[in-house]
Amino acid sequence: MSSAEINKNEVDIVIGALNADLTQFLNCWRPFFSGFHLIIVKDPELKEELNIPEGFDVDVYSKADMEKIVGASNATMFSGYSCRYFGYLVSKKKYIVSIDDDCVPAKDPKGVLVDAVSQHVTNLENPATPLFFNTLYDPYCEGADFVRGYPFSLRSGVPCAASCGLWLNLADLDAPTQALKTEQRNTSYVDAVMTVPLKAMLPISGINIAFNRELVGPALVPALRIAGEGKVRWETLEDVWCGMCLKHISDHLGYGVKTGLPYVWRNERGDAVESLRKKWEGMKLMEKSVPFFESLKLPETAVTVEDCVVELAKAVKEQLGSDDPAFTQAADAMVKWVQLWNSVNSSG
Amino acid sequence: MVEPANTVGIPLNHAALLKDELDIVIPTIRNLDFLEMWRPFLQPYHLIIVQDGDPSKTIAVPEGFDYELYNRNDINRILGPKASCISFKDSACRCFGYMVSKKKYIFTIDDDCFVAKDPSGKAVNALEQHIKNLLCPSSPFFFNTLYDPYREGADFVRGYPFSLREGVATAVSHGLWLNIPDYDAPTQLVKPKERNTRYVDAVMTIPKGTLFPMCGMNLAFDRDLIGPAMYFGLMGDGQPIGRYDDMWAGWCVKVICDHLGLGVKTGLPYIYHSKASNPFVNLKKEYKGIFWQEDIIPFFQSAKLSKEAVTVQQCYIELSKMVKEKLSPIDPYFDKLADAMVTWIEAWDELNPATKA
């Protein structure tokens, strides 16, 4: 699907600004962002004024806007990398594409710049196939199809809730891994999109992601905040937690999550060894989360996304609350998020 | 347009990985000319050739290959009445080769599969990649978005639980095909000219609980870990179905691997699939399967093996009982198949007596 075929009016590009100077970022993305509406949300803890080049159709939200729309106490939900969720909240579009502000377009093996926005929307517009694995990956793309042995009744697929892209150069590794392999950079361009199977858990990265807001918007929860969360991805887990919730809810409601293309090029930033010095709680929290999500069964009565988030929050509080206060806070944040979602989105 | 690789001039690798621990099983009814192009990569290994069809025909094996060859007469002689479980006039007969092998690993390839080229134009040593896949762990409990974390240049991504990073033993390595894709007959009829030209540079573990269509054209497995589950069913002559041999094995294998905590990988290596089989002939073979798979898939998706099933054979026998109970109502074929599954295990155990520790 070329960018000409995408209905740009259905898409919001949401950027969380953790850096004040967005000139290079936006100029690099200009060929692929032009024609789209942008929502730029400034990290409330960022002191400097944002520097945004001319020529974009953009709405900028800062701390003051957050406080006006959701109240001062709720605005704390959107600090750091979580600022972009505010953009998801106020958007009125069907699809959201979100890219970290330290990423620029990648080049494919032919040297052509990758239109990540187009690829994400294509992924979202085509069905997902979580119920049976297709060994030729995406059966709906040009030159591919379902293979022999793929049941015909499963070939129409299910709606795609999210499209998880990947990263060349600095891959989304955790601090210990990157610190151990300081020189390692991702140079492998894997030319595939695939659906992550039903019940399979995965770590969804917020660095390069898109989702169907109409379908699953409330499930993108800004909830898990680890102690000492920082301004580099190595020091956060909010997106991974959000992704675990999103996948579980998608599985429950019969939607699919895709992974693979598009790639973005992630610039060098931060120092993994430096990040290691901080006491990193993320590992412990992940270990506890896995068995929880593995055995979790949302009730049949949870048929809307909001219901699912509320039920999930309840289960988190009951089963994980005593393990770590971070989980109790996450559960509370999830409930609050649904309330905010409903109030902001019902006021037209 | 993709082309196969030209392997002329590639030197023979005398230090080939696992050359004394791996057998290459090739079913054939025609000839083995294709082996000539595979020579640099496969000559160090022992071949087990399973000759299907007319046993009086002589299959010429290219010079320099070390092999054993079995035709139908041999199969009947070796298995006696149990030979009934081995298909005739269908490449499913290849599983006889798995049974008679004495090696730890098996690589099986079809006689119309040539050497593929990677995007840089280099000839792909498919067997070497399969061995790499089998020798390093799988990660079925949590999906890694950067695919195989053990590959050079890759790793586990942020958020991947550390307790799951050791992985589990890999039982199966499922390779793919450039050029003629492995489509079913209806798809072939609708898209006769479609060719797979996309080289996806990844190996990945198929998550626990997920079924997949396993193609037997380019496949390797750890015979010690999963061998007895690699029965390719009753196909071909006298049977109501064909082209579901590998599919059947794949579904059984995946359920058992999931139960025993073993991994199944798919992706690299690619081979170049040169010959498109006749879609009308295929349609006749697959016809019943197209309907039956609608019931077979839910059956395998919900199959639960007991805690007491701790060996592959025990798992397989349990599965055969479930097949008899749940699938026989669909067609008496499944009753026969369930019996054949038991016969297969009996034959396997006879030819492979367990060594006492």
UniProtKB/TrEMBL annotation, chain A:
Q: Which processes are annotated in GO (biological process)?
A: cell wall organization; plant-type cell wall organization or biogenesis; UDP-L-arabinose metabolic process
Where is the site described as Required for activity found in this chain? R148, R155
Which UniProt key words apply to this protein? Cell wall biogenesis/degradation, Glycoprotein, Golgi apparatus
From the Swiss-Prot or TrEMBL record, state where the protein is found: Cytoplasm, Cytosol; Golgi apparatus
Q: Which residues form a coiled coil?
A: none
Tell me what reaction this enzyme catalyses.
Answer: UDP-beta-L-arabinofuranose = UDP-beta-L-arabinopyranose
Sorted alphabetically, which InterPro entries does this protein's record hold?
RGP, RGP_fam
Query: According to its UniProt record, where is this protein mainly located?
Result: cytoplasm
- Sugar-bearing residue positions: R148
Q: Which GO terms describe its cellular component?
A: cytosol; Golgi apparatus; plasmodesma
EC numbers listed for it are 5.4.99.30
Family assignment from sequence similarity: Belongs to the RGP family.
Q: What does this protein do?
A: Probable UDP-L-arabinose mutase involved in the biosynthesis of cell wall non-cellulosic polysaccharides.
Q: What is this protein called?
A: UDP-arabinopyranose mutase
TrEMBL record, chain B:
What subcellular locations does the record give? Cytoplasm, Cytosol; Golgi apparatus
According to its UniProt record, the EC number is: 5.4.99.30
What are the alphabetically sorted keywords of the record? Cell wall biogenesis/degradation, Glycoprotein, Golgi apparatus, Isomerase
> What is this enzyme's catalytic activity, as reactions?
UDP-beta-L-arabinofuranose = UDP-beta-L-arabinopyranose
Gene Ontology cellular-component terms for this entry are: cytosol; Golgi apparatus; plant-type cell wall
Residues bearing glycans: R158
- Main location, first listed in the record: cytoplasm
Feature type site, description Required for activity: R158, R165
Q: Which GO terms describe its biological process?
A: cell wall organization; plant-type cell wall organization or biogenesis; UDP-L-arabinose metabolic process
GO terms of molecular function: UDP-arabinopyranose mutase activity
Q: Which Pfam families match?
A: RGP (PF03214)
The UniProt entry's sequence similarity note says: Belongs to the RGP family.
Reported function: Probable UDP-L-arabinose mutase involved in the biosynthesis of cell wall non-cellulosic polysaccharides.
Q: What is this protein called?
A: UDP-arabinopyranose mutase
List the source organism: Brassica carinata (Ethiopian mustard)
* Taxonomic lineage of the native organism: Eukaryota, Viridiplantae, Streptophyta, Embryophyta, Tracheophyta
